[in-house]
Amino acid sequence: MTEISYREAICGAIRSAMLEDERVFLMGEDVGHYGGCYAVSKGLLDEFGPARIRDTPLSESAFTGAGIGAAIAGMRPIVEVMTCNFSLLALDQIMNTAATIRHMSGGQFHVPVVIRMATGGGRQLAAQHSHSLEGWFGHIPGIRVLAPATVEDAGGMLGPALDDPDPVLIFENALLYGNTAKVEVSHAVDIDSAAVRKEGSDLTLVTYGGSLGKTISAAQALSDYGIEAEVIDLRVLRPLDDSTILASVAKTRRCIIIDEGWRSGSISAEITTRIIEQGFWDLDAPIARVCSEEVPIPYPAHLEEAALPSVAKIVAAGHAVMGR
Amino acid sequence: MSDARSKVRLDREHCRTLLHQMLRIRRFEEKCAELYTQQKIRGFLHLYIGEEAVAVGVMQALRPDDAVVATYREHGHALAKGVSANAIMAEMFGKQEGCSRGRGGSMHLFDAETRFYGGNAIVGGGLPLAVGLALADKLNGNDRVTVCYFGEGAAAEGEFHESLNLAALWDLPVLFVCENNLYAMGTALDISESETDISAKASAYKMPSNWVDGMDVVAVEVAARRAIATIREGAGPSFLECRTYRFRAHSMYDPQLYRAKEEVEQWKGRGPIKRFREWALTASELREKDVEAIEAEIAREVSEAVAFAEAGTLEPVENLLCDVVAERRA
Question: Which of A225, A247, B190, B246 is the most exposed, having the fewest neighbouring CB atoms within 10 Å of its CB?
Answer without folding.
Answer: B190
